[in-house]
Design a protein that fits this description.
149 residues, alpha+beta, Ribosomal Protein L22, Chain A, flat
Length: 149
């Protein structure tokens, strides 16, 4: 009876064979052991009710700038997306400093992108019984901060 219990408690590792020559993707546990992502602070928000084309205009302004300069640019740019980007920058800095112990004075914006999100389709009534489609576009914003060497 004890032998049966021992057999059931043993865990078998699954091995997968790949048909192609691609490198295998790392699991979450392997990434944690290797320390992947410990040199950056990342923050993202999905489905912001701003078109990605408008968000990309401000994102291009702050890409590659250090944290303090990027925050000043965002605060003084008259655009609808700046309020959301300011919160994202502050959140990414907090993630970098608190979670990964990075130096706040050396942080700079390595990646910032605004991808297209879901599009809400609405109908606007027009004259003579006709209608027009309104597309309310959204975007996904992501900011990544790293230490400058």
């Amino acid at each position: 009876m004890e032998e049966k219990m021992e057999k059931t408690t043993e865990k078998k590792e699954k091995t997968f064979t790949r048909k192609c020559n691609k490198a295998p993707r790392l699991t979450k546990k392997q990434r944690k052991e290797l320390g992947v992502g410990k040199d950056q602070g990342r923050a993202s928000v999905d489905n912001v009710s701003i078109p990605s084309s408008k968000a990309k205009l401000v994102a291009d302004l702050i890409r590659g700038k250090d944290y303090e300069t990027a925050l000043a640019i965002v605060k003084h740019t008259p655009n609808i997306v700046t309020e959301t980007l300011e919160k994202l920058l502050i959140s990414a800095r907090a993630n970098a400093v608190n979670n990964n112990n990075l130096d706040e004075s050396k942080l700079y914006v390595t990646e910032i992108y605004a991808n297209q999100g879901t599009t809400l389709k609405r109908i606007k009534a027009l004259s003579r019984g006709s209608a027009a489609r309104i597309k309310k576009r959204t975007c996904h914003l992501t900011v990544v901060l790293k230490e400058r060497v």
